[in-house]
Amino acid sequence: MAATQKVATVAVVAASCVASLAGCSTGSSGSKEGAPGPQQAPAEAPRSAIRLIGDGSTAFTGAQPHLPRPERLKAGERPPQFVVFSWDGAGEDSQRLFSHFRKVARENNATMTYFLSGVYLVPEERRDVYRPPQHSPGRSDIGFNDRDGIADTVKQLRLAWLEGNEIGTHFNGHFCGSGGVGEWSVEEWKDEIAQAKQFVKSWKTNSGMKDTSPLPFDYDKELIGARTPCLEGQKNFIKAASGLGFRYDTSGVNNQVWPGKKEGLWDLSMQLVPFPGHTYEQLTMDYNFMVNQSGTTTQGDPGKHERWGDEMRDGLLQGFQRAYDGNRAPLIIGNHFESWNGGTYMRAVQEVVEQVCNKPEVRCVSFRQLVDWLDAQDPKILAKLRTLKVGEAPKQGWESFLSARPAPAPRGVPGAPAVRP
Where is the composition biased (Low complexity) (predicted)? Predict the structure, then answer.
């Protein structure tokens, strides 16, 4: 019943996405505290370490800082509780929410995933460089940007990556419903992906800001995952992405269980969690809480804003506790940099970060860090974890449940012993 309720909500979202800079969507074990994160913004990479790529919009600056080395679970070891906070259509605008949540993450031992919409690096006057599938050139349901907005967004992307956060993609024009991404072919998805990459790799040419520092990463290698607009078009997107170096997708709807793979990609779907005051569960995304509270009105009754935010916060916390005390399935949370219903959902997300990310055995990580850890595990151990239902802890305890010694990781797989010279 809960899944049926939530899928219906996704359909509502598909018909009512709000055009704004933020975009929209319908989505250590044994340690004594949360995994340590970067405590301050790092300095720029030394000039001598920079190798410019293309027009200098991006650059190779070495391995990304602050990425922990994934390790295999030991025999009988309880899995850490992973929590992923992610942001659709990430961009910095006058609300300054991108920079704000970077600070929140640093202060709470967390890293996050920022899904960039490529058109946020394209100025309005250059909009015709975008050729969206099934739409006329220069069309975008979330608009484009201006030079100041591009400069601000590039600055946040640069600093976020240097702090260990991940830069994924929310693609470009954010088309939902008729003619939208749900109707795109595999080849059309490949074209959209290529354009999303190109806008990141050529933002200097498109904006004319030649003297600005480059993004410190090679986006062809950095981009390993995505969330589709309105959670539509997943089937053909996965088929397209599986041959393009992608490692995960987070465009589906699922329960709080351990993930598997689809078409070779980790299926890190949005999840259903308790919805306080309601008889059905809710998707772990701010937009969906809003739609079920104020409908398609983004600024509903001010007298209800606080309660609505509390419902989202408490629903996410109940979902977290259910996993933390139960099957330890990773908790996947999606958001937007928006001020819907007075910003109550941003307040709710911040309170969840502050309450969960410093708990023992909790790791608030990016999707990249999560899939690195998953890839490091013994497949037989992951298969056993997938037998646990929502909120179900092993009846015989973790030590007995995972008592079998995992097979060693093959050479070259994350978590394998280091090769000694």
Answer: 404-421
The 10 Å CB-count burial string (b at 16+, else e) for 133-143 is beeeebbbbbb
- Whether 412 is in a domain gets the answer no
Q: b or e along 206-241 (b: 16 or more beta carbons within 10 Å of the residue's beta carbon)?
A: bbebeebebbbbbbeebbbbbbbbbbbbbebbbbbb
- Length of the chain in residues, anyone? 421
Please tell me what DSSP assigns to residue 285: B
Tell me the CATH number at 323.
Answer: 3.20.20.370
Where the chain has pLDDT below 50, the residues are: 1-43, 421
C-alpha distances out from residue 86 to 39, 197, 256, 270, 286, Å? 20, 19, 17, 10, 11
In contact, 201 and 53? CB cutoff 8 Å: yes
Burial, 283: exposed, middle or buried (Cβ in 10 Å; 0-12, 13-18, 19+)?
A: buried
Which residues form the domain of 153?
2-39+77-401
* SS3 state at 263: coil
What gap in Å lies between CA 300 and CA 294, rounded to an integer?
A: 5
Residue 55 forms part of a structural domain: no
Find, among 305, 318, 336, the residue nearest to 275 by Cα.
318
The per-residue pLDDT for 299 is 97
Neighbours of 312 (CB within 10 A): 30
CA 149 to chain centre: 22
205 belongs to a structural domain: yes
Tokens of 241: 């992405």
- CA-based nearest residue to 37, from 365, 353, 360: 365
By C-alpha distance, which of 327, 271, 197 is closest to 2?
Answer: 271
pLDDT at 44: 54
Q: What angle do CA 410, 416, 420 make, to 5 degrees?
A: 105
Distances, alpha carbon 387 to alpha carbons 75, 177, 214, 383, 401, in Å: 18, 35, 46, 7, 11
**pLDDT score for 37:** 45
Query: At how many degrees (to 10) do helices 286-294 and 2-14 cross?
Result: 90
Which run of H or of E encompasses 35?
Answer: none
Write down the residue that tokens 């997300």 correspond to: 349
Identify residue 360 by its one-letter amino acid code. Answer: P
* pLDDT of res. 386: 98
* Domains identified in the chain, total number: 1
Asked whether the beta carbons of 3 and 69 are under 8 A apart, the reply is no
